[in-house]
Design a protein that fits this description.
single chain; 2 domains; alpha+beta; seven-stranded antiparallel β-sheet
Length: 396
């Protein structure tokens, strides 16, 4: 059975193609903002909610009136941009119904819109557009041309959608593929629970510790210097745009390092264990600010801020997402359990108390005297909870 996966490759456009890609991105950004303004104005003045279908029907008129601008690009890619806005409104209304902070869709500034999507290979775009070329791979994009791709690995499955995204001065193509063949690994007969942390990215129930590289902390000095340089530049100046690009490039490098580390850590776990049990973490709740309000200020704000930064630097969410699809492809079983109490419960006798957690790394049960590394003890509790969930499911 095939799975859905994405493949990301660096583009190597010519100077003319890079200018065309930037123009394509800018026109799609303006289309997004005009469509948002249309919805806002219609509701404010007439109480009318504009839908995607109505805005999509207007595209042909927009393209006809602006043949050298909006008319240059793929109709399907413009529809995808309008669907992107529609999804933003759908998410907004979902948050309203759930009683959460709604966050009304906002206009996209130049630095806030970096991706254009073509929903179907062959409709305004074509992957591997010159298959007869002996050494290079190209992707054809309407209005841009055949852009060379640095394809560092084979693409598997059927290409469904093609996206182009900008990171600083670099351009990438992202292929979303269906029916990618699974790559099952031989059974090992070993199961493990894993505890996520900031001292170690992952600690397993059999005592292994996967290092947390702390990429953001390692780049903090260079980022601080770049931010100081940026703060001294005049808004709208060419030097400020260069300073912004420098900061963005540093953040992009941290993101790529974090992604690479997550891939390697997940691959190691999937290769070693048949069943992996992890905590069902609510990372957004865990990293919520402790500042509070003027009437009710938070406590230990600096410490909480530092913890939040460490959690986000560890990249738990990215790691768990990668682990999930690698486990699916390899035929491994992944189980998520409620993490409540796992760090303060004794893995030997089951006694749970706050006092059991002596230090960040130390665990000493006040009932039976069992001592262990706190993260290993938590990982054993996580494994036990996962196996307890697995047995009824297999029996059914």
């Amino acid at each position: 059975m095939g799975v859905r996966r994405s493949f990301t490759f660096l583009l190597r456009p010519t100077a003319r193609q890079a200018a065309a890609l930037a123009a394509c991105l800018e026109d799609h950004r303006q289309l997004y903002n005009v469509a948002l303004e249309h919805r806002r104005t219609a509701y404010a003045r007439a109480g009318v909610s504009v839908r995607y279908g109505e805005q999509s029907a207007e595209l042909k008129h927009i393209r006809a009136d602006d043949p050298d601008g909006q008319g240059r690009w793929s109709f399907s890619s413009q529809q995808a941009t309008l669907r992107r806005l529609d999804k933003a409104f759908a998410a907004f209304f979902k948050r309203v119904r759930a009683g959460r902070a709604p966050g009304f869709p906002r206009f996209k500034g130049r630095g806030r819109f970096d991706t254009v999507e073509w929903p179907k290979d062959g409709d305004g775009c074509r992957w591997d557009s010159q298959p007869e070329h002996p050494t290079a791979t190209y992707v054809r994009l309407q209005g841009v041309g055949h852009v060379r791709v640095h394809r560092h690995r084979p693409v598997r499955g059927q290409v469904k959608t093609i996206s182009v995204t900008r990171e600083g001065s670099r351009w990438f193509v992202v292929l979303s593929c269906d029916d990618v063949p699974a790559e099952p690994l031989p059974a090992t007969g070993v199961v493990a629970g894993i505890d996520m942390g900031v001292a170690s990215l992952v600690t397993t129930s059999d005592g292994q510790h996967l290092t947390n590289p702390r990429h953001l902390a390692a780049s903090a000095g260079r980022l601080a210097d770049a931010q100081r340089v940026l703060a001294r530049k005049q808004r709208g100046s060419k030097r400020r745009r260069k300073a912004v690009a420098r900061v963005a490039a540093l953040h992009a490098r941290v993101r790529r390092q974090r992604l690479d580390g997550a891939h390697k850590a997940a691959r190691a776990l999937v290769a070693a264990y048949d069943v992996i049990v992890h905590e069902d973490l609510r990372i957004a709740n865990m990293t919520r600010s402790a500042v509070g309000t003027i009437e009710s200020p938070g406590r230990n704000v600096a410490a909480k801020s530092g913890l939040n930064r460490s959690i986000l630097d560890a990249g738990w969410g990215v790691f768990l997402t990668i682990l999930a699809y690698k486990a699916e492809s390899a035929g491994r079983k992944l189980i998520a359990v409620n993490p409540a109490g796992t760090s303060r419960t004794c893995a030997r006798c089951g006694h749970s108390a706050r006092e059991n957690r002596v230090t960040q790394a130390g665990f000493a049960c006040t009932a039976c005297g069992h001592t262990a590394h706190a993260d290993v003890n938590a990982a054993k509790n996580i494994l036990r909870a996962g196996l307890a969930l697995r047995e009824p499911a297999e029996a059914a």
